[in-house]
Design brief:
205 residues, alpha+beta, four-stranded antiparallel beta sheet, 3 helices, 10 strands, 32% strand, globular
Length: 205
């Protein structure tokens, strides 16, 4: 009787494991594990508010909406002791951005998107109310020329602004081979900063 019970428990364990593996497979079904295609246009500038080529490029990207690889919180505004909480915003990585080559980053890539769920804007990151902003990361000839461009779109997908930002590359000083793209919010003394996996290193703005 006890032997049968042990065998039964073993079978239950195997079935449970298969169920989990199947669920994980279904969850990831259709997800492209590689970065989005190259933009296919000249290096991005911040002088034009719209561009059909840029909209076409964004439409071909896939962002990971799974809770464990993104982040969501109210963004801080001001500096302590006058700091207060602003808009609720989510940051989500572009699927496969952890496999982007450094050469591709010199040409520039969108590595994440930010969704503003609130009526309040967040000008530092180019977030308009109830909008989606795409984070373009590009490495320069040296670290002083690295840059972010925060590309803000409205509810129709039209690009309404481009906000230039500094780009800090490999700030955590760790050359870690990641198995999945990740994006997070980082708290600073005076506001918030975006962080994302960026090839074998990481990017901050």
């Amino acid at each position: 009787m006890s032997a049968f019970s042990g065998q039964g428990r073993c079978m239950v364990g195997v079935i449970a494991l298969l169920t989990v593996l199947t669920a994980c497979h279904v969850r990831e079904a259709g997800v492209r594990p590689t970065p989005g295609p190259a933009p296919g246009f000249d290096p991005l500038d911040t002088s034009r508010a719209s561009g059909q080529a840029l909209r076409d490029y964004v439409a071909r990207l896939v962002f990971d909406t799974n809770y464990e690889v993104g982040d969501e919180q109210r963004l801080a505004i001001g500096r302590y002791p006058d700091l207060h909480y602003g808009p609720l915003a989510a940051i989500q990585p572009e699927i496969g951005n952890h496999t982007v080559t450094e050469d591709s980053l010199h040409h520039g890539r969108i590595i994440a998107r930010i969704i503003n769920y609130s009526d309040e804007p967040y000008p530092k990151l180019g977030l308009a109310p109830h909008s989606i902003t795409y984070w373009w990361a590009q490495l320069g000839a040296d670290t002083t020329q690295n840059r972010s461009v925060m590309i803000s779109s409205d509810s129709t997908g039209a690009i309404v602004s481009r906000t230039g930002r500094p780009l800090l590359y490999n700030e955590d000083r760790r050359d870690v081979r990641r198995i999945r793209a990740v994006a997070r919010w980082l708290w600073q003394e005076d506001d918030e900063q975006g962080w994302s996996s960026c090839g074998l290193k990481c990017c901050r703005n």
